[in-house]
Specification:
The protein has three domains: 212 residues, Jelly Rolls, CATH 2.60.120; 288 residues, Glycosidases (TIM Barrel, Alpha-Beta Barrel), CATH 3.20.20.80; 77 residues, no CATH class. 24% of the residues lie in helices and 21% in strands. The chain is built from 16 helices and 32 strands. The strands form seven sheets. Strands 2, 4, 5, 6, 8, 11, 12, 13 and 16 form a nine-stranded mixed beta sheet that branches. A hairpin with a 2-residue loop joins strand 12 and strand 13. Helix 3 packs across helix 4. It is globular and about 85 Å long. 45% of the residues are buried. The N terminus and C terminus are likely disordered.
């Protein structure tokens, strides 16, 4: 039901009314323009509600003394409040943002949708999180925008105080608008389950000066968010050096408390396996194990991206964001550099500030802490001290390659296959198009990449194995057929110059012989087989009436995946027969790809950004494959320690990260297929985004100041040390004399790593 609420008071003069309407004839160029005030309503704006209630008389004071008017959204699909001119349209062509004074009337945050329409049918949309607490002024930019325009994954926390005012800037706005003919602004709540209220005040437009100010000076000299505060925030250099000294004492104590291990981190005192001299897998008593070269059980507790090279952030063109960059000739100026990360991948498309000059805040903080530019060898030693003290035993993907020379922790190698082979765009290509495995040039590129990657590691017992690329765009959601079979449909739309299309057409022709057979099976009228060879051919969607469509798509996807994984497996078996093929690090997957991976790889690997591994894939289906499984990425981030993004799996606050980690590990241990979990990642990402794609998450074990997040690290350590007690069964032993103590699982101290020299600061 729609209710039109005419809000009246004393009528204004014609001139003033025209100004309030914002008509083009009298469009104002001032910084701010008030069109309507809910507290002192006039005929200037037509207010319409649907499934919402706006009392026509009453206004109410807030706890802060401000007078606002209440609107209540009732339980419905999309209860709304619409603002429109009494006649004609608004001309906002000289303005940069819509503004609305508002406040949540509830004790919790609300999700609010805002839509702005123009006379030609164009519209802008945004969704905001309206926090509980005092009133703020909502600012909606009058053009499509996102944090990508600022070069980062997530934007500045909102609301923020600017010149004594509390402002809430919409982070992401989509669509487009004819600013000269704006016809309506609609506020709505998506599917409230109970009545929810907000308080409203002034509505108008203004310039985009506040939008620019929102990003000024947001990073301090240490690379931290300048407007926030938290217990671990570094305020001076002395804090860095004091914390480093305290940490060193703690590390030596924790290293001495590790469970007994062999040289490779395998647990002693439990069941024994055959020693092969290299890492391998074995199933025993219905549980899969990784086995160390010395023949001991190994549950891979790893950390990704253990490197000092991933904390650089672009500064060129956005210098105003940084409050204290070194000047030329100053000591820390050596931490500047330049790069170019522009690309058309889904991860980077449309991002501003993706090339030019960058600054390495992490490197600068290492120099501040330890008195000189970091020595790579000392940095690696200190990082491994940390990881082992915290209960980790594996250097995950994308870690510093030089760790392999240290012979101290097992590591893995990513196979990054590049070449001039054909690729297929599914529309889901976050990191690029799918490689065409039917293209002979792909086999050549794989051969070359594997030969190079394995050249210096063929006989290295510390190498856990190789990953077959990372997060390929196999498919979208399984409940969306166009996404589920996107790779197959995209292949058929290509020309026959693409080997994958030729392979698909051959498969179909071998089955149906001619166009008549295919037409009957697919419910289409194909006049000639050659029509399928044309670019742009659109296969019909799967249907219950014609089940052959879906079956044919599945057959092709299995052929595609078999060809891809077999190509890599055959080459790796030739160049590196002693090491494991650790799977494809699935982020999106289809059963056909997972089954093919299980056939040709030694281990399945998945990136699970879920509260539990079981939420990431159907484990009942995985159990049928009977293959060891490695969780190669997971994390839990928050937004209360500086970086703006909470990660793919976000928790509300820092204190929740440790319990979330422990819970994930507990659930992983419940699955006998899972042989390890790898955290993403070692360091927090820069506040203003990493070079690669602008990701700027608080995801790390360590801050950009090189200070560990103590509470989180302590919780992680406790969870990691509990694994040995859960998985390690006592080794068979000779009978003990009556009255003698029974043997226990060995969890006594191992020999700690050699401490750093007292006069040599840790990197």
């Amino acid at each position: 039901m729609k209710v039109n609420v005419r809000l009246q008071a004393n009528r204004l003069s014609g001139a003033l009314l025209a100004a309030l309407l914002g008509c083009s004839a009298v469009a104002m160029a001032e910084d701010k323009q008030v069109l309507f005030n809910f507290v002192r309503p006039l005929d200037a704006v037509q207010v319409t509600t649907q499934d919402a209630v706006l009392p026509s008389v009453t206004a109410e004071p807030t706890p802060e003394g401000e007078i606002l008017r209440r609107v209540t959204f009732n339980p419905a699909e999309q209860p709304s409040l619409r603002l429109a001119p009494q006649s004609g349209s608004w001309d906002w062509s000289q303005q940069g943002a819509m503004s609305l004074r508002l406040q949540s009337a509830m004790d919790w945050a609300l999700t609010l949708d805002v839509q702005i329409d123009s006379a030609d049918g164009k519209r802008l949309k945004t969704r905001i999180a309206l926090p509980a607490g005092p009133a703020q002024t909502l600012l909606v930019p009058l053009q499509a925008t996102s944090p990508r325009d600022q070069g980062m994954r997530a934007g500045v926390p909102m609301p923020w105080n600017h010149k004594g005012r509390r402002l809430l800037l919409a982070e992401t706005v989509s669509g487009e608008l004819n600013l000269a003919q704006v016809t309506a602004v609609t506020l709505s709540l998506p599917q409230p389950q109970a009545a929810q209220s907000i308080l409203l005040g002034r509505f108008g437009v203004r310039s985009d000066a506040e939008r620019t100010a929102a990003y000024q000076g947001i990073v301090d000299a240490y690379g931290q968010y300048s407007r926030g505060d938290w217990p671990e925030k570094v305020k001076n250099d002395e804090r860095l050096t004091q914390a480093a000294a305290q940490e060193q004492q703690q590390l030596q104590r924790w290293l001495s408390e590790r469970p007994q291990q062999d040289a490779f981190g395998g647990w002693l005192g439990g069941q024994r396996f055959e020693a092969s001299g290299f890492f391998r897998t074995e199933k025993r008593d219905d549980r899969w194990f990784l086995v160390t070269p010395e023949g001991n059980p190994f549950y891979s507790l790893g950390v990704n991206t253990v490197t000092a090279q991933q904390s650089r952030t672009y500064v060129e063109g956005r210098e105003a964001m940084f409050s204290a960059l070194p000047q030329p000739g100053e000591a820390l100026a050596e931490h500047f550099g330049s790069s170019d990360n522009r690309s058309d991948t889904g991860a980077n498309k449309g991002r501003a500030f993706a090339n030019g000059r960058w600054f390495d805040f992490y490197g600068a903080n290492l120099e501040r802490t330890y008195g000189q530019a970091a020595d790579p060898a000392r940095w690696r030693a200190h990082s491994q001290d940390r990881l082992q003290a915290w209960g980790f035993n594996t250097l995950g993907n994308w870690s510093e390659p030089a760790f392999a020379d240290d012979a101290r922790m097992p590591y893995s190698i990513p196979l990054s296959i590049h070449g001039d082979y054909a690729t297929i765009s599914t529309g889901l290509d976050w990191w690029g198009g799918m490689p065409d495995p039917f293209d002979p040039r792909f086999a050549m590129a794989a051969e070359r990449a594997i030969a190079i990657a394995s050249r210096d590691h063929r006989d290295d017992p510390w190498l856990l194995g190789y990953f077959a690329d990372n997060e390929l765009a196999w498919a979208g959601p399984a409940d969306d057929p166009p996404a589920r079979y996107a790779l197959a449909y995209a292949t058929l739309r290509l020309t026959t110059d693409v080997p994958a299309k030729r392979a698909f057409l051959k498969q179909l022709r071998d089955k149906y012989r001619n166009q008549n057979g295919l037409s009957r099976a697919w419910g289409i009228k194909l006049e000639a087989w050659e029509l399928m060879e044309d670019p742009g051919f659109q296969a019909p969607p799967p249907s219950a009436e014609f089940p052959a469509i879906e079956k044919d798509m599945q057959r092709f996807l299995r052929l595609y995946a078999d060809t891809y994984f077999k190509t890599i497996a055959d080459s790796l078996n030739w160049h590196a027969p002693n090491h494991l093929l650790l799977g494809g690090r699935f982020a999106s997957s289809i059963p056909e790809a997972v089954s093919a991976c299980a056939e040709f790889c030694d281990v399945l690997s998945f990136n699970f950004y879920t509260r539990e591994p079981q939420h990431g894939y159907d484990f009942a289906a995985l159990r049928k494959l009977d293959k060891p499984l490695l969780v190669t990425e997971f994390h839990f981030g928050s937004r209360d320690r500086g970086p703006f993004w909470g990660g793919v799996a976000e928790v509300y606050k820092e204190e929740e990260r440790g319990p979330a980690y422990a819970h994930f590990l507990t659930k992983a241990l419940e699955e006998p297929q899972v042989v390890g979990v790898h955290w993403f990642q070692y360091l927090d990402q820069p506040v203003t985004g990493r070079l690669l794609d602008g990701e700027n998450g608080h995801l790390g074990l360590v801050a950009i100041t090189d200070r560990p997040w103590d509470g989180f690290v302590s919780a992680v350590r406790k969870a990691n040390l509990g694994v040995v007690k859960r998985l390690l069964k006592p080794a068979a032993a000779s009978p003990v004399p009556p009255g003698a103590a029974q043997p226990e699982v060995a969890i006594s101290a191992a020999q700690p790593a050699a401490p750093l020299a007292a006069d040599t600061p840790a990197p």
